[in-house]
Amino acid sequence: MKPKAPGPEKRTLPSVGAVSKERLRLWLRILKVSRFVEAELRERLRVEFGSTLPRFDVLAALYRDDTGLRMSELSGVLRVSNGNVTGIVDRLVKDGLIVRVPVEGDRRAMIVRLTNRGRETFAELAAVHEAWVDELLGAIDPDEADHLISLFGTIADRFEDNKTRDVQGGKGAHDGDS
Amino acid sequence: MKPKAPGPEKRTLPSVGAVSKERLRLWLRILKVSRFVEAELRERLRVEFGSTLPRFDVLAALYRDDTGLRMSELSGVLRVSNGNVTGIVDRLVKDGLIVRVPVEGDRRAMIVRLTNRGRETFAELAAVHEAWVDELLGAIDPDEADHLISLFGTIADRFEDNKTRDVQGGKGAHDGDS
DNA sequence: CTCAAAAGCTTTAGGCTTGAAATAATATCG
DNA sequence: CGATATTATTTCAAGCCTAAAGCTTTTGAG
């Protein structure tokens, strides 16, 4: 609970300072909406399918790539830690929705792939999920949606450029919403 | 385990089902941005202050209310489960930033309040936090911010109306971003 | 070839999160 | 008053999440 260094952390602050409050307010609104939508999706996945958002995310990533993904690619695409993916994958394997396949020529690596059952299950889930999102964001009309998509796209891209947060040398071509 | 009803969600739309995809895309963008910002804030809180976002949220809620909040009010304001708050509060108490005070006349209830140290600590944190958010959302200019604040506000309000997710009869006047 | 560095993954410790069950105290109904 | 329902909080089991440490395998410099 102590600032490790009182160091003058002057990070080339953008402009004067009046805008500050506005962006904070905006951030709180964004947070509120995204938490509401997430909570609602999580709840519905739980009640209607006995599943979770992280599981859904993993299945979605694998659904896009029929060849499967390495553990490290998976954690790169989903932007979560390596150890985290291990646990989620363990459970999905136990449920019979995915399999771990050894990689030819590299005994360290593992490729994770959907089983047939996994593919079917996800197809079902994805359709319902899309309908849910459409319903939950129903207040946003098409014009606004378009505007927001491009606006948020620029912000997200800016992050990627600034950070290059790609830890494991992931390919990063599977983000799916680009 | 089965979608109860895929209900034909046809709202006076220009094209048949094209909007659906748009809202899904938008949702993925929102999610991406909010996860990036959250991850960055969490990381900075950890590195610079040895703290976390949930702790910050609790302190923020208490900072607004000098009289303190009951456990149930706290979980209502933060929209997290009761049991969750218990754990976070335990740790903050152990750190000496807040205290649990018995409620006069109701031996079940507890009021949680900032200590002086807690108040000072949070004041520091809040200032830095605001600067971070301003920096992270720097790509959004004031006009857009204004527009987005009101847009997201409508969506958030719609949720509150639709759900009345207020579990413990919370006062709901402390959301702070209204 | 050798062996140290790097890469891929899992394990671990600690914390966050939920829904459900358990505890304890208060309120209400007869 | 006494039994029962409700309310406030904590505890619990299970899962998610991270950073850091550990293990195995591969790579690559000398």
From TrEMBL, chains A, B:
SMART domains: HTH_MARR (SM00347)
Listed PROSITE patterns: HTH_MARR_1, HTH_MARR_2
Keyword terms, alphabetized: DNA-binding, Transcription, Transcription regulation
Gene3D superfamilies per UniProt: Winged helix-like DNA-binding domain superfamily/Winged helix DNA-binding domain
SUPFAM superfamilies listed in its UniProt record: Winged helix' DNA-binding domain (SSF46785)
Protein name as catalogued: MarR family transcriptional regulator
Domain HTH marR-type: 23-157
InterPro entries: HTH_MarR-typ, MarR/SlyA-like, Tscrpt_reg_MarR-type_CS, WH-like_DNA-bd_sf, WH_DNA-bd_sf
Gene Ontology terms describing biological process: response to stress
One term of GO molecular function: DNA-binding transcription factor activity
Lineage top rank: taxon: Bacteria
Keyword Cell division: no
